[in-house]
Design brief:
single chain, 79 residues, alpha+beta, 2 domains, 2 strands, flat
Length: 79
């Protein structure tokens, strides 16, 4: 997010969409909420957004994307 808005390209319409945050939105609150949830999980009183197997798969996927870009070749990701 830059300058109070986010932009994304919609391939289906070949147009950019600009979205502004709702009134009173505080971006730093996202980090505060994330740390609070992490602490609740560590205390056994919360549940993380993604289970560990999903998180591991996401990291493998992102690593494959980076490697693919660096090597300029197709990378396979085991499921």
């Amino acid at each position: 997010m830059t300058d109070g808005f986010a932009r994304r390209y919609l391939a289906a319409t070949k147009r950019w969409e600009t979205v502004t945050p709702p009134p009173g939105f505080n971006y730093e609150q996202c980090y505060i909420d994330e740390i609070a949830l992490f602490l609740e999980c560590m205390r056994g009183r919360g549940q993380w957004h993604n289970p560990l197997p999903t998180a591991i798969h996401v990291v493998r996927f992102l690593t494959a994307m980076l490697t693919s870009h660096e090597r300029q070749q197709w990378m396979e990701v085991a499921s």
